[in-house]
Amino acid sequence: MGATEVKPTRSELIEIKKKIKLSESGHKLLKMKRDGLILEFFEILNQAKDVRSELDAAYEEANTKIGIAKAVEGTISVKSTAFALSDEPDIELESNNIMGVVVPKIKSTSVSKPMNKRGYGILGTSSYIDEAAEAYEILVEKIILAAEIETTIKKLLDDIEKTKRRVNALEFKVIPELTESMTFIKLRLEEMERENTFRLKKIKDKAE
Amino acid sequence: MSLMDTIERGWNGLKRGWNGLIGTRHIKGSRKGTANYSYLNARVKGMKGHLFPKETYPRLMNMEIDQIARYIQESSYKEDIDQLAQSYESADLVEHALNRNLAVSFTKLINISEDEPKYLITEYLRKFDVWNIKTILRGKHVGASSAEIKENLVSAGEYTYTFLSGLAGKESTDEVIEAFSESYYYQILKQFDGTNLSDIENMLDKMYYEHLYQSIYETRTKEFKLFLRFVQTEIDVRNLLTLFRTKKENLAEDEIMEMMIDNGNVFEMDDLKKLVSLSYEEFIDELKRYSLWDKISDCCSIEMSSLIAMETSLKKYSLTYARQFSHANPLSIATIMDYIITKNNEVNNLRIIVRGKSAGLSDEIIRNQLVI
């Protein structure tokens, strides 16, 4: 809204003053939220870096272990043993609130199992299979953790960006425009008052 | 019903006889009879001559997978590679060819033997039957396709491929179990309730060893005694591996004892009970009193995080034992058992190289897994 498009009335001035006050307090709050989110983001970023490097290591380890198991026991043996594992891990999705940003909290159960609960017989298998299964259990746990943290980071980043845009809009567009409108109305009102005074003087002169 | 009761009942079922069992190879071997070990040994020596010498493995380590396939195609694996080349390629081709060759070689061994050795070899190779039953059951349990299950069968035991692949096409686990109603496996298989697959697998594996021991023990000829020692050593190695895996996992004592196989040579039942009752640290300490410790001492400690090196050492020991046993007892069942172990080991080594390369494992890791 251009400053000249507003009606130069007192009620409009009061309205704009209210809007400026609201915008300024909103701007202050959003700035605080943005700074808070950035702080939170950097804290989680460190965690995410750790989890990502742990995930990479777990993936490498799992790949090596399954490679060894396939090599020593045979793909057939690994596949046949994998048939025995019919239970899928339970994943529960909850939500967490970080400064108004809803982030996921992933709870997983029955990913890591003791050897005797994995579904395959112990006597007919070997430690190559155990270690491959264990390495993949760790990998799945790391993936779940990484999914939680990386989704949180993504959501925080989205929200930081959104908040930044709002702060900038308020700081560089909304508040300056409102201030400009306020100034315009003030000037217009003053001018109108001067005109009125001048008109009154003219009327008085004519009357005399 | 306890595991021991089940095995006892299964064993009694077996005693009732194998005759008329559908899907078997019509094996006529018997515990008694004139066994021509000289003839059989000559044939086995010929078959052993086709095995790769140990110098081959370092050469194969420097080849690509396709070069390895080509190399083994020029040996006794030619027919297997030729047969399977249309269906598979690269590492899959080599692995399936190795498995096919193993099944063909062991079936040939059964076919060329008669009477006593035929009986002993068949009893020993029943481990492949147990393997196939477990595979079919697992596959049916999780709803794997018939083709997937068939791909994972190795018909080197008594059951024919036709019979086993027919089972893979059955609709449910119940139908598969029913097909074994005439066999001694049925006593165990009928206890499958959809939730206890690992228990059933353990029972089948345990029953295999118990039955193998019993079937040898009852006839006390020289050959049977030699075979008995061989089987006892295998039981010892199996028990030791199970002990390591279960103690490391901290399983309950009674659960571990359920998996212990009786009739070992080094570890008798009292030894096993004692070892099971100890903590992991005490268990390793106590092992130092046994002869098998020497075979694993260089790679075994309380701090070890992986059991792979220890398991490889035990495999090496089994191979060395079979070889020494064969040299000490020429023209006997020991030579045939040595061939079975060595052939199996050759297939394993070739697979380790090919699969290791295909998985991108380093040369050092691959070399550490080889049993030469």
From TrEMBL, chain A:
- Provide the primary localization: membrane
In which compartments does the protein localize?
A: Cell membrane
Gene3D superfamilies given for it? 1.10.287.3240
GO cellular-component term (any): plasma membrane
Q: What are the UniProt keywords, alphabetically?
A: ATP synthesis, Cell membrane, Coiled coil, Hydrogen ion transport, Ion transport, Membrane, Transport
Its record classes its membrane topology as:
Peripheral membrane protein
Span of the signal peptide:
none
Which Pfam families does the entry link to?
A: ATP-synt_D
Top-level taxon in the UniProt lineage: Archaea
GO BP of this protein: proton motive force-driven plasma membrane ATP synthesis
Q: Per the database entry, which stretches of residues form a coiled coil? A: 146-195
Molecular function, one GO term? ATP binding
> Is Coiled coil one of the keywords?
yes
Q: Which NCBIfam families match?
A: PRK00373.1-1, PRK00373.1-4, V_ATPase_subD
> How does the record describe its quaternary structure?
Has multiple subunits with at least A(3), B(3), C, D, E, F, H, I and proteolipid K(x).
The free-text function statement in the UniProt record for this protein reads: Component of the A-type ATP synthase that produces ATP from ADP in the presence of a proton gradient across the membrane.
Family the UniProt entry places it in: Belongs to the V-ATPase D subunit family.
Q: What is this protein called?
A: A-type ATP synthase subunit D
Native organism is Methanosalsum natronophilum
UniProt gene name:
atpD
